């Protein structure tokens, strides 16, 4: 279930991440969705969706981090 735009992302993503981080999430999710289509391409028995979510969050965390307040910001903010 790739996402066409950031408005289609789950509420937990839309309500917590800044817009740029949402864009990163969407692109990473969609790329992983295509890349890990076949179960043999995944490291374990996780679903395609779960794998795509893991990849998307990892991509976001390359640029953003979660503060103790629960808010997300770019590294160096």
Could you please describe the fold and organization of this structure?
The termini are far apart. The chain is globular. 45% of the residues lie in helices and 8% in strands. The chain has a two-stranded antiparallel sheet. Strand 1 and strand 2 form a beta hairpin. Helix 2 crosses helix 3. The mean pLDDT is 94. The protein is mainly alpha-helical. It contains three helices and two strands. The chain has a single domain, classed as Orthogonal Bundle (Rna Polymerase Sigma Factor, Chain: A).
Identify the strand order in the major beta sheet.
1-2
The total of beta strands comes to: 2
CATH topology: Rna Polymerase Sigma Factor, Chain: A
Report helical residue fraction. Answer: 40-55%
For the largest beta-sheet, the strand count, sense and barrel status come to: 2 strands, antiparallel
Mind telling me the C-alpha Rg? 13 Å
Quaternary class: single chain
Beta-strand proportion: 5-15%
Topology order in helix (H) and strand (E) letters: HHHEE
CATH superfamily: ChaB
Which stretches of 5+ consecutive residues score pLDDT under 50?
none
Determine the structural class based on helices, strands and strand pairing.
mainly alpha
How many angstroms separate the termini? 33 Å
């Amino acid at each position: 279930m790739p996402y066409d735009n950031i408005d289609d992302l789950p509420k937990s993503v839309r309500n917590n991440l800044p817009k740029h981080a949402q864009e990163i999430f969407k692109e990473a999710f969609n790329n992983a969705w295509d890349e890990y289509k076949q179960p043999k391409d995944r490291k374990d028995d996780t679903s395609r969706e779960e794998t795509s979510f893991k990849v998307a969050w990892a991509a976001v965390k390359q640029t953003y981090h979660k503060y103790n307040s629960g808010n997300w910001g770019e590294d160096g903010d």
